[in-house]
Automatic annotation (TrEMBL):
InterPro entries: SpoVT-AbrB_dom, SpoVT-AbrB_sf. GO terms for molecular function: DNA binding. Signal peptide: none annotated. This is SpoVT/AbrB domain-containing protein. It comes from Desulfofundulus kuznetsovii (strain DSM 6115 / VKM B-1805 / 17) (Desulfotomaculum kuznetsovii). Residues 4-49 form the SpoVT-AbrB domain. SUPFAM superfamilies: AbrB/MazE/MraZ-like (SSF89447). It comes from the Bacteria.
Amino acid sequence: MNLIRIRSKGQITLPLPVRRAVQADIGDYLVCEVRGDSVILRKAPVYPRASFDDAIWRLVGSAEDKEGREDVSVDKHKYLGDEL
């Protein structure tokens, strides 16, 4: 068991053996969950970022449009968070 102290601003330092055990590195995200009087930290799942070449964009707008909406794939940069 490792004993850690809560610092100013609520910060804690995860001991190196703990970081190694869960393969956590600088910049990784952790999910924090409270269960009773316990705090559970888990490594957050990492999902690859969508790109302009992803197959999903071939499907977007390909279905028959019965409501007159326009093809959103032309504005895919908005949905990906990219700027032109």
